Recover the amino acids of this structure.
């Protein structure tokens, strides 16, 4: 087990180093996030709907869309020069390969979210400082769930025609439980309600993470092996 | 009897039973006091939902079996079941609004159960799209099996999401922890319709499976 985690970390570091050297993916994802937030701001009638009512949905739709776009590149970059085949013949466990990709994706999406959140607070004039800790924990829990599913599905679609379109089509239904749960909890946080009101949602989010991270780790070998 | 004939016979039987369901539901089942005639659609809508869930559940099961045994027949069955399930989902998603218009006053509402069913439908449309986009049979079977298992794991989560979200949709009245709260006549019609839709499912899947190559390894 420790060996798997060590290999996973090595692979994740490789992906992150690659990302940090070019920065194209990261920069595009950040600009995309800022743009979606701006578009949402103009997409509502400020006299009819208050920012606070709409804010949780805007936050999570932005995060999930940014995640879908980022996930596309995770395995795409391994197609160049048959890098994926190289990874598959190297003596590392398939599960380590999946977990490595998952960690790299989580860092990537997490960074985009970390930049997106203050922008969101700024654009929509929402004070997040007093709920920062629970909000950050919620974002982490929800993100792990949908990135775990997304990482596996992005491995499924790389060799498929129209993969850029296929990934969101397959992935969005899986986003519903974490998205709805996260929106509900965020709304309670913003309106200062106690978290005990949403304990059901929190349990749902945690169970989702647990089930899909284990299921994806288990099924990933079947995805890449002939 | 070949598989093809068997599929046709079962489908024919299902269609005859479906006529009986309609006759029984329209003329021999009491009219609901508050909803009037519109409630009759319940005898089609709920069994169609049942067949959809059955179909999608079996896609998940066949996907697991495929990954364990690598037998093409499971993959062909999953493909057949997903297609038939999607057809039943269309029945469910059209009869629902027909009922909702007179009762709720709107064709569609973003109620949790409707939304989640719609997403389930999208999930399996996605499954069929993925199948269509991969030409190599081995990869197609593998990828769709993985997606099928993921889809099956998603269903309970969608169900939980529904229960946690405030819902307008009538709550289950037969498959629930306490005893069914439906008068005898209505329950009989409903259960008969469940049987009919299950037979139709079996008939359709048998025919579709046969079209996909059947038991032979030619397809």
């Amino acid at each position: 087990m420790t060996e798997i985690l060590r290999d996973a970390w090595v692979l994740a570091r490789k992906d992150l180093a690659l990302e940090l050297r070019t920065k194209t993916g990261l920069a595009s994802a950040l600009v995309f996030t800022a743009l979606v937030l701006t578009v949402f701001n103009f997409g509502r009638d400020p006299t009819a709907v208050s920012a606070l009512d709409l804010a949780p949905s805007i936050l999570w739709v932005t995060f999930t869309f940014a995640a879908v776009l980022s996930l596309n590149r995770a395995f795409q970059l391994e197609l160049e020069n048959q890098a994926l085949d190289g990874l598959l013949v190297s003596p590392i466990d398939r599960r380590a390969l999946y977990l490595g990709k998952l960690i790299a994706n989580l860092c990537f999406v997490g960074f985009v979210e970390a930049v997106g959140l203050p922008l969101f607070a700024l654009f929509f004039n929402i004070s997040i400082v007093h709920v920062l800790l629970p909000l950050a924990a919620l974002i982490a829990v929800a993100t792990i769930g949908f990135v775990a599913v997304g990482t596996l599905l992005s491995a499924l679609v790389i060799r498929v025609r129209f993969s850029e379109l296929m990934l969101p089509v397959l992935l969005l239904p899986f986003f519903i439980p974490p998205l709805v749960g996260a929106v509900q909890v965020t709304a309670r946080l913003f309106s200062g309600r106690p978290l005990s009101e949403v304990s059901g949602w929190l349990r749902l989010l945690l169970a989702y993470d647990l089930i899909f991270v284990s299921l994806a780790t288990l099924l990933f070998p079947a995805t890449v092996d002939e | 009897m070949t598989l093809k004939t068997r599929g046709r016979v079962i489908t024919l039987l299902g269609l005859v039973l479906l006529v009986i369901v309609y006759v029984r539901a329209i003329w021999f089942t009491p009219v609901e006091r508050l909803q009037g005639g519109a409630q009759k659609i319940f005898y089609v809508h709920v069994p169609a939902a049942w067949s959809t869930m059955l179909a999608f559940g079996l896609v998940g099961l066949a996907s697991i079996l495929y990954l364990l045994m690598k037998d093409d027949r499971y993959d062909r069955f999953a493909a057949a079941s997903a297609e038939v399930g999607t057809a039943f989902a269309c029945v469910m998603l059209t009869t629902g609004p027909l009922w909702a218009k007179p009762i709720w006053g709107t064709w569609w509402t973003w109620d949790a159960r409707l939304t989640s069913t719609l997403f389930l439908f999208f999930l399996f449309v996605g499954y069929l799209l993925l199948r269509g986009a991969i030409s190599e049979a081995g990869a197609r079977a593998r990828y769709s099996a993985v997606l099928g298992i993921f889809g099956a794991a998603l269903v309970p989560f969608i169900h939980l999401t529904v229960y946690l979200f405030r819902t307008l949709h009538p709550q289950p009245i037969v498959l629930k922890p306490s005893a069914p709260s439906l008068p005898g006549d209505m329950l009989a019609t409903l259960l008969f319709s469940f049987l009919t839709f299950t037979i139709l499912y079996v008939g359709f899947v048998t025919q579709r499976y046969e079209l996909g190559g059947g038991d032979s390894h030619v397809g």
Observations:
- The first helix of chain B runs from residue 3 to 27.
